[in-house]
User: What shape does this take?
Amino acid sequence: MSGPTIHDHIRAHLDPSGRGLLPGGAELPDEPTGGIRWASGARDARPVLGRFGAGPDAGELAGLVADALAGDPGYAALYEALTAGAAEPAGVAHLPAGPLHDLGVRLVTGARHREPVRFGLGLLGADDTELLLLIGRHEEFTGAAAATIEVTHADAEPALLRLADAVTGWGRIGVVERFGPGAGPGVRDWLLRGGFRNAVLDAYLAHRAATVGDLAAALSAPAVDGELLTAACDIVCALLDGGPAATIDDYADAPRALAALLTHLEAHPGELRHLVALARLDDYLADGGWPARYRRQWTIARHEALVRRVRDLLARPHWPALVTAGLTRPDTFHDARQAARALDVDTFPALLDHVRAGAGDWPLLMAETTADRLPGVLALAAAARLAPADLDTVVTALRAHPGHGVDLVLASLASPVGRNRAMAVRTLVGWGPAAWAEGIQSALRRAIDAEPDPALRESMAQLLTG
Assistant: This one.
């Protein structure tokens, strides 16, 4: 077999920061072409998303491993069988421990395919921590490395914490979900100060940070530092996001934690991330779910007290200037825009400037485009070199504005990208022939003559004849 081993590939792409991989590291040497490609670690962290292919069954596996321990021909047969799909290492635990461990090291360090590496990780032990952590830096293997650490280390928590801190996506989610209520102070502090943050969705880990990290107790301290205060605001925002994970309403200590958070915010000058949390809390406290909450952990008195305190904090006079400044910076624009809603600040002019400066926020811009704002947006779109996805966004939004942005619709219709042409057709259908400008019918005829997709060509023809 040619090419680098997976072990060498990962080692060559370790980010010197100690977290994640350098560009190109995520693409493993055996990366399949075509078909569904799962995000690394997604199937380990969320098995419902899909299953690994089936490898040898338990009986066949035991025989293959026994033969592999006897010599190279057996190793080659085992390797070939493992490349077919996942196999459970626990089924060979009865075989001699020393040779079994050596086989695991050989697979982990010498394999060029991911399933033999995954199987080999399950044969390693407590003395292989550094190898487990190295391979676990690629999120395809983080879950398997974590599982081995958990069952082979007398005290797995330090190694699991190192592993969780070294990854940022599904791998981090999978490792953090192994931390339970008995986690030590190092894990709890790490969770509260940012361990919940991940590249998938912070909401997946926010509830675990709040409960395992004991957010309410941490915020009950007389004083907290700025890092913890900002992280607490972000945990609250993630809990308020809802979605596929536990929410603020699933957090039994929410009343105590929120009251303590407001105490610290009242003693702090106030930063943009704090204002974002206050704006989100203001929405939450005013929504319609309170009758149900009163039957659980909330009381009317607690609710009304928080409403008053949040409104008092939102009335601070320095917030508008902070939001205005935040809207001018790409790194703070989205925070400032979210916070501005609580202050009744019109952010559309800043959003227009933000997109004009090159930010890829056309979906956001088009969602806020009204009839009176449309001329300025169309002028910006005409002057910009729109990527195909952005052209899709603009042309799709134009369906609600018949007869406007004709040049953009025609550019989409003539695009070499099939999806652009399809979006143009949908918009023209939405407009109806009565709203078509001169030139659209002839453009459609040219598009029909050039269209390689029979279904799309038929849709274009129906526009002219329907």
